[in-house]
């Protein structure tokens, strides 16, 4: 009986170490990506308040900016939850 318990403990330990290794390996890329993103600086020269009916696409089109550029200078925006009165940057740059 003690031999079976010992085998179970060894297997549980090996499995735990394996899972910890997998989690560490997966989170490493996230941490590295986060450090690279943190190096970029955003400079905003003009902001506007979101109005009724606005969304990310209509705002970017109204200021003759690509959606990609708009999102680059508004990195924390959630286009699904944009709200009236929210300040968004419409003229700026994102540098590394």
TrEMBL record:
Establish whether keyword Signal is in the entry: yes
Annotated LysM domain ranges read 46-90
- What keywords is this UniProt entry annotated with? Chitin-binding, Signal, Virulence
Q: Does the keyword Signal apply?
A: yes
Q: Which domain of life is it from?
A: Eukaryota
Q: Which residues cross the membrane?
A: none
Pfam families according to UniProt:
LysM (PF01476)
Endpoints of the signal sequence: 1-27
Q: What is this protein called?
A: Peptidoglycan-binding lysin domain-containing protein
């Amino acid at each position: 009986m003690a031999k079976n318990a010992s085998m179970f403990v060894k297997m549980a330990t090996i499995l735990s170490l394996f899972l910890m290794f997998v989690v560490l390996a997966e989170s490493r890329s996230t941490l590295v990506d986060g450090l690279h993103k943190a190096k970029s600086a955003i400079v905003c020269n003009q902001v506007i308040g979101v109005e009724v009916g606005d969304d990310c696409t209509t705002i970017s089109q109204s200021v003759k900016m690509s959606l990609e550029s708009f999102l680059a200078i508004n990195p924390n925006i959630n286009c699904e939850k944009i709200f009236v009165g929210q300040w968004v940057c419409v003229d700026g740059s994102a540098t590394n």
